[in-house]
Specification:
The chain is α+β, with helices and mostly antiparallel strands. It is 24% helix and 27% strand. A hairpin with a 4-residue loop joins strand 1 and strand 2.
Length: 234
């Protein structure tokens, strides 16, 4: 097999940014790095892409190997490739962000790499350029969530509107008007109201809703105006 002559070989890796929601807060899943340099320092889930893998296949494999998680929503969003990002060898990283309901997967986490959830504003120092990767992942998450209902991936099967508002406020680090948010949300026609209330959060209780998956694809663009002036968050 012929090869391109005179070209420098680069390593290709993938990094996974795992966002989770526990019902009250947005969190980030980190692991302790298993090799030098910076062994046992906090890191994103990452690893090298094998010659037989696509970047997506590698991301799925690495996520499962590092945390035990599988079958989660994952989306590629950016390539990071500054020449000095890895002090060992020149390495390009193809980054993916994933969204999960923490309670749904909490029993699936393995402890091989000491995976731990952190609040976004209490994130420890990370290796390499991983803090910048998280920053860009947050921007991409906000952008996509302003256009599409992807944040439902972070919720349990049934949820309340106050819980959904708390989720959006956590992602955008701001507060939304209760009445206006509820009106816009219900106008998307993506929610089905259940005859059941959450009585734990208040005496009156809040009705549970679920996502109407039959209308999900047809109304995928309906969240376009849910977030007021979304451009200020990017």
């Amino acid at each position: 097999m012929s090869k391109y002559s005179g070209q420098t070989r680069l390593l290709a890796a993938t990094d996974c940014i795992i966002f989770g929601f526990d019902g009250t807060s947005i969190k980030l899943l980190l692991i302790k790095r298993g090799l030098n340099p910076f062994k046992n320092k906090w890191s994103l889930m990452g690893g090298f892409i094998q010659t037989s893998e696509s970047p997506e296949d590698a991301a799925v494999r690495i996520l499962e190997e590092c945390t035990g998680l599988k079958d989660v929503y994952m989306e590629q969003f950016m390539v990071f490739g500054k020449p000095d990002r890895d002090p060992v060898e020149r390495t390009l990283s193809i980054a993916y962000f994933a969204l999960i309901d923490i309670h749904k997967y909490e029993n699936q986490l393995n402890d091989k790499y000491h995976a731990e959830w952190f609040l976004l504003n209490e994130m420890p120092d990370l290796i390499f350029d991983h803090s910048e990767i998280v920053k860009q992942a947050k921007k991409q998450l906000r952008y996509k969530a302003a256009l599409h209902p992807i944040l439902f991936e972070l919720l349990p099967e049934k949820f309340t509107i106050p819980q959904l508002r708390t989720l959006y406020e956590g992602v955008y680090e701001t507060e939304f008007d209760d009445r206006n948010f509820s009106r816009k949300l219900l106008s998307t026609n993506l929610l089905v109201k259940l005859n059941e209330k959450d009585k734990l959060s208040s005496r009156k209780g809040a009705f549970y809703y679920k996502l109407d998956k039959s209308h999900y694809e047809n109304n995928f663009e309906s969240f376009l105006h849910l977030i007021p002036t979304p451009e200020k968050f990017f």
